[in-house]
Amino acid sequence: METPKTKALGFGCVVWDDISSGPQAPSAQNIGGTTLNVVVHLNGLGYQSTIFTAVGDDNLGSMTLKTLNGLGLAMDFVKTVPQPTCLVKVSLDSDKNPTFSGFESGMSFDYIETSNSDINYIKNGAYNTLFFGTVEQRNDVSRSALAKIIEECAFETIFLDLNLREPFYSTEIIFNSLQKCTIAKMNWEEAVLTNELLRIGASSVDEFMSTIASKLFIDSIVITDAANGAYYFDGHETGRTTAFAVDLVDPVGAGDAFSAGLLYKLAMGESLDKACEFACRMGAMICSAVSTLPEYRVDQLYEFVDKLDLHKKRIWP
Predict the structure, then answer these.
(1) Which of 118, 161, 119, 111 shows the shortest CA–CA distance to 140?
(2) Strands 49-56 and 230-233
């Protein structure tokens, strides 16, 4: 397996997902959170990645630190704060679509701070990629820390996973986040909402991607659409990658695996369309597994050979 000669830094939350009830509950508590999931997947793919986060000074926080150590993650930027570690309730409906609750304000990831020594450590560590989302920006403390990192450190790639969670986002946060990134990834519903909130006025998904890329100086846009695959804009043209057919077990974490696969292939110098296809394989693998962080080999991803036979794009609202 080839290894990118670059390093990635993920800024964001570590949470625990409680999927212990509901009609389609596959498991109980699993460690997760978008940033952690991406970090773990990237490291598994051979792309050295570090997490910048905060956990609570509580039992769940202690369990988090032990788990992160067990996963072999660097702990250089893992803070301990008085606020509680977040436990998210995940419910799956009869179609296995997840809904999330328990993101109350005042969680440990709301109080991620950074210092001048952190900034120097990031600079000396030669991190060329930063990835982040919007949930972690709902509080001024974490939002200011992220802004300081972006302003004072130089990254070749800044990857945004929009990852909107009601009600913890605003038009301002969405706009500012898009302005800071070089690659923006979101799902279909988030794209439709962004088109409305930012008053883009696009009448198609292709027009939306090319318009926000042009207006906000974003190099690449990727929109995931579950079983419909992914749409992308590489700065020149739009395209679409279809999904892979798998037996759906649990979709939680599929988007995070997609992000990791995308970043990994782009770091290897692959084109955006090839990177999206590999990312779809990563997402399919998670959908077919019980855990958001299952053990796997890269060659297993190529066992997904049957693409879903979709003949037309979804109609843009």
Answers:
(1) 111
(2) unpaired
Contact 138, 110 (CB under 8 A): yes
Task: Please tell me the distance from the alpha carbon of residue 87 to that of residue 95, in angstroms, as a whole number.
Answer: 23
Full-model pTM: 0.90
Closest-CA residue to 293 (of 1, 15, 36): 36
Q: Are 127 and 7 in contact (CB under 8 A)?
A: yes
Q: Are 129 and 7 in contact (CB under 8 A)?
A: yes
pLDDT, block means (10 residues), the chain with 317 residues: 80 83 51 92 93 95 94 94 87 62 82 97 94 96 98 97 92 97 97 97 97 97 93 96 81 88 95 95 84 75 73 71
CA distance 158 to 100: 26
Identify the burial level of 140 via C-beta atoms within 10 angstroms of its C-beta, where 0-12 means exposed, 13-18 middle and 19 or more buried.
exposed
Which residue type sits at 100?
A: F
